Amino acid sequence: MHTILLVIYLIAAVGVIGLVLVQHGKGADMGASFGAGASNTVFGSGGSGNFLTRMTALCATVFFIISLALGNMSTHKSEGFDLKLDQQATEQTTDNTSDVPATGNSDVPL
Q1: 53 φ, ψ to 5°?
Q2: What angle do CA 93, 96, 99 make, to 5 degrees?
C-alpha cells in the first residue's frame, strides 16, 4: 500500500510541475486578446486555460491528500515500531536479571 501511494505521489508531483510549466502567465493574456496567440493553441482560444487549470487543481489535490496519508502512515508505523522495541527491551531486562552473579562472591580477589 505504501509503495502504491508513493508511485501515485510522484506521478502527481511531476504532473503538477509539468502543468504549471505549460501554462501561460497572466501577462500573456494581453497579447492573446489582440489575436497574437489565439490561432496557435490546440484547445482553442479559451479552452486550454480552463483545461490546464482544472488538471492542475486535480493533481494538486491528489498530491496534498496523498501527502497527508503518507505522513499519517509513517507516524503510526514508527509508533508501532517503538512499542515493539519497548516490549523487547523489557523482556531482555527481565531475562538478564537472573543471570547476574551475586555481589558477595568469595572467588573475586580484593
Answers
A1: -65, -45
A2: 160
Cell of 77: 508505523
Give the C-alpha separation, 16 to 5, whole Å.
16
User: Structure pTM?
Assistant: 0.54
Dump strand ranges (E) for the chain.
none
- Retrieve residue 43's grid coordinates: 484547445
Report whether pLDDT(13) > 60: yes
**What average pLDDT does this structure show over 17-24?**
90
Render pLDDT for 73-103 as a digit per residue (tens, 0 to 9): 988 876 555 556 666 666 666 665 555 555 6
* Cell reading at 76: 503510526
The DSSP-derived string for the chain is -HHHHHHHHHHHHHHHHHHHHHS--TTHHHHHHTTSSGGG-SS-TTHHHHHHHHHHHHHHHHHHHHHHHHHHHHHHHHHHHHHHHHHHHHHHHHHHGGGSPPTT-TTS--
